[in-house]
Amino acid sequence: MTMLPPGGQHATTTILVGGHESANGADLLPLLKTLPSALVSRPGRALHDAVVTELAAGGSVVAVLPMTWGRDPGMVADTAKTLRWLAGGAGAGRLTLCADFGTQDHLVAWLRRAAIETARDRPGAGLLLAAAAANPFDDADLHRVAHLVRAHGAGVPVEPACLSDAADLASAVQRARLLGSDEVIVVPAGFAQSAPPTALPAERVSFFGPLLSPQSIVDVVRRRTREARHDLTHGDDGIAAGLLADHGHGYAHPHAREGEVGHAHPHPQAPHSHSHPPTVAEPATTGRAAAARAEPRHREGRGPSPTEHLSSPH
After folding, report:
1. Distance CA 312, CA 108 (A)
2. Which residues of 216-235 are buried (b: 16+ CB within 10 A; e: fewer)?
3. pLDDT tens figures, 248-271
4. Is 247 helix (H, G, I), strand (E, B) or coil?
5. Which of 11, 38, 217, 249 is the most buried (most CB within 10 A)?
6. Smallest Cα–Cα separation from 127: which of 155, 107, 104, 166?
7. Cα distances (Å, whole numbers) of residue 195 to 24, 56, 130, 145
């Protein structure tokens, strides 16, 4: 691929791609007030058209950032497939796929912060981790996240809630009450900045608030964009790693046994990587793909602190 010249002063347009963790991007729109060179798009045709328009507009670099906490790998892979077809021609050296906004480890850490604050300020309350219902595998990840928060979250009851409508939220609140919570605190397991669009269903039910302030989200977006531009100068546009984002997510697809003719599918070559000294803000890993898509590390009774990887709350 064509590389961005080192030290190039091209402007950058960042496209924030939203899936089910951000109401298909609706939760991200307020960020544009402080990100004037950014756009919000859904994956698929909308993203394709947005990238084509930006590439045709001039010489800016187009950085595409999957806005996920690691619970929508299919969206990341679909985004990479869209970009793969656009990386040549006008996109050569000007189109890059950023590392994901965050990981499930980050999500667990910030939800643990909510659990710790709840235990301190609202004794007897339980957490309800609310997210839009998606598909069985992404929804199963929410149950896994809830278990990790419960296991390491200061003894606060924690329940997942995959929501399709208001009735789902009411049922989840009732379940939390039956399991012993005197009060139910609804916490978004995504990018929602306000309570679910339907009214909270009962007394002693309240909305915790967003996991991150808008400014903290903007800080991470700028960091991911900056890292992607840097990697582009070294010939890594991030697309190969993105194509593998959902590999192993969902039902297993067995490879052919020895002596059998099986379904063949190519795996992209590993992208160029180059190490840099680790910083306080990000995990010490090799390459941006590894940093953003690292394996979960909640095995020893302690997850990463919220400030270990992402910006601290404002």
Report:
1. 14
2. bbbbbbbbbbebbbbbbeee
3. 766 655 444 444 444 444 555 544
4. coil
5. 217
6. 155
7. 16, 39, 10, 20
Q: Tokens at residue 306, please? A: 């919220």
Place of tokens 């680790």: 278
> Rounded to two decimals, what is the model's pTM?
0.80
> Please, is 246 exposed, middle or buried when counting C-beta atoms within 10 Å of its C-beta (0-12, 13-18, 19+)?
middle
Structure tokens at 155: 């003894």
Specify the amino acid at residue 45: R
The position carrying tokens 């009411």 is: 170
| 189-245 pLDDT tens trace | 999 998 876 667 778 999 999 999 999 999 999 999 999 999 999 999 999 999 998
Taking the C-alpha atoms of residue 38 and residue 62, their distance in angstroms, rounded to an integer, is 10
